[in-house]
């Protein structure tokens, strides 16, 4: 019971540390939907771990209806999670969230397929995920990283990085700014595919030309042998016996 009280107090204090608009504990406890969603999830997760799945889903569904925040009861969240505003936040079943994470409205921590097992992201400690960001897939976002608003993150993010854009790209790592992409030299998958097809067609043309020449050579050789055969047969028929000379025919 003491641990639960300590956890509740920690959650309330987290709101004050992250939201300058918070004025009193009464206001925080009764009006912050992100806090309500976290508390409801802790209860739902308790039932989920004991395989009371239906009860767990019912609790999460009521919480979703009341707060606009959908956290699957199977998700694992650390301490001092702060969900600001919160409307439209979705956290998937196999998602793992570390300590001191801040999530803004419209964030999705989801999967990219229908496979079973781990399919949602793992969020490290002290990560900030901006409003509207989508982090999709089973990979890790490292500690102390920032995901910019409306970013689409589909691959691993090292620790101490800032990611922005769609698709998301790292613009800062360990406090050092990453060079901008040269957009005039970006790879074009369509052009690459067309070039590959062109090379393949060129190779096929070369093979066809070789086959055509081979057939012509064989055809020429066959015609010469046919003419020689006919001439020999005629000469043999003109001998005294009126029969072809088999020795001459065999020599053709």
Can you describe what's shown?
- The chain has 252 residues and is of the alpha/beta class.
- The chain is built from six helices and 16 strands.
- It has helices at 2-18, 25-31, 33-49, 53-67, 189-237, 246-251, and strands spanning 70-71, 76-77, 82-83, 90-91, 96-97, 102-103, 108-110, 122-123, 128-129, 134-136, 140-141, 146-147, 152-153, 161-164, 169-173, 176-177.
- A seven-stranded mixed beta sheet has the order 3-6-9-12-14-15-16. A five-stranded parallel beta sheet has the order 1-4-7-10-13. The protein has a four-stranded parallel beta sheet with strand order 2-5-8-11, with no helix packed on it.
- A hairpin with a 2-residue loop joins strand 15 (169-173) and strand 16.
- Helix 3 (33-49) packs antiparallel against helix 4.
- The protein is elongated.
- Mean pLDDT is 85; it is low at 246-252.
Mind telling me the CATH class of the largest domain? Mainly Beta
Spans of at least 5 consecutive residues with low confidence: 246-252
**Quick one: CATH superfamily of the largest domain?**
Hexapeptide repeat proteins
User: Strand tally, please?
Assistant: 16
Alpha-carbon distance between the two ends: 109 Å
Which strand order do you get reading across the main beta sheet? 3-6-9-12-14-15-16
Which fold name is given in CATH as the topology of the largest domain?
Answer: UDP N-Acetylglucosamine Acyltransferase, domain 1
Catalytic activity: L-serine + acetyl-CoA = O-acetyl-L-serine + CoA
Organism: Paenibacillus agilis
Pathway: Amino-acid biosynthesis; L-cysteine biosynthesis; L-cysteine from L-serine: step 1/2
Keywords: Acyltransferase, Amino-acid biosynthesis, Cysteine biosynthesis, Cytoplasm, Repeat, Transferase
């Amino acid at each position: 019971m003491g641990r639960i009280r300590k956890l509740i107090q920690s959650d309330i204090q987290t709101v004050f540390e992250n939201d300058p608009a918070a004025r009193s504990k009464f206001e925080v406890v009764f009006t912050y939907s992100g806090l309500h969603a976290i508390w409801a999830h802790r209860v739902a997760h308790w039932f989920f771990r004991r395989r009371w799945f239906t009860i767990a889903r019912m609790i999460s569904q009521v919480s979703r209806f009341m707060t606009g925040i959908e956290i699957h009861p199977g998700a694992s969240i650390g301490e001092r999670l702060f969900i600001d505003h919160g409307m439209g936040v979705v956290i998937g079943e196999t998602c793992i969230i570390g300590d001191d994470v801040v999530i803004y409205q419209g964030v999705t921590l989801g999967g990219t397929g229908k496979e079973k097992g781990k399919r949602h992201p793992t969020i490290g400690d002290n990560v900030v995920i901006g409003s509207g960001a989508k982090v999709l897939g089973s990979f890790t976002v490292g500690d102390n990283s920032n995901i910019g608003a409306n970013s689409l993150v589909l691959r691993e993010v090292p620790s101490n990085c800032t990611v922005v854009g769609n698709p998301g790209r790292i613009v800062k790592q360990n406090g050092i700014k990453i060079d901008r992409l040269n957009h005039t030299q970006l790879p074009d998958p369509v052009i690459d595919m067309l070039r590959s097809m062109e090379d393949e067609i060129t190779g096929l043309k070369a093979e066809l030309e070789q086959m055509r020449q081979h057939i012509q050579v064989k055809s020429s050789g066959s015609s010469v042998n046919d003419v020689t055969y006919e001439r020999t047969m005629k000469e043999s028929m003109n001998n005294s016996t009126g029969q072809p000379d088999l020795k001459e025919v065999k020599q053709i």
